[in-house]
């Protein structure tokens, strides 16, 4: 069963998805799937090329912004900003648990000037705690 968790009207996150989840994403109106999991992180999980192929078969756009153990970078935030700006519909992002996808979204939205309190609240409603990320969110919001 698909576990898609909305953070906004245009962006949802999920723990690792499978091939059947791609069809469900299409049925729920998503236009793009973003993979935030590095290939090989969990060899038994579907790898990026498998999800990309399933997305192509369903007519969904696919992008990969892998986030590994080194954490987050401005380049990853820039990549998500570009995808958000070019999006033609709702986006579903996934990683192992949905946490990295949520963190990347939160960092991008804070840097874009959205209210940090609202970002934290949206994540909490989806089941993700951003309290440890709050200082970085505030710093990014303050850079504007």
UniProtKB/TrEMBL annotation:
<protein>
    <recommendedName>
        <fullName>Rhodanese domain-containing protein</fullName>
    </recommendedName>
</protein>
<dbReference type="InterPro" id="IPR029021">
    <property type="entry name" value="Prot-tyrosine_phosphatase-like"/>
</dbReference>
<dbReference type="GO" id="GO:0016787">
    <property type="term" value="F:hydrolase activity"/>
</dbReference>
<dbReference type="InterPro" id="IPR001763">
    <property type="entry name" value="Rhodanese-like_dom"/>
</dbReference>
<dbReference type="Pfam" id="PF04273">
    <property type="entry name" value="BLH_phosphatase"/>
</dbReference>
<feature type="domain" description="Rhodanese">
    <location>
        <begin position="78"/>
        <end position="132"/>
    </location>
</feature>
<dbReference type="InterPro" id="IPR005939">
    <property type="entry name" value="BLH_phosphatase-like"/>
</dbReference>
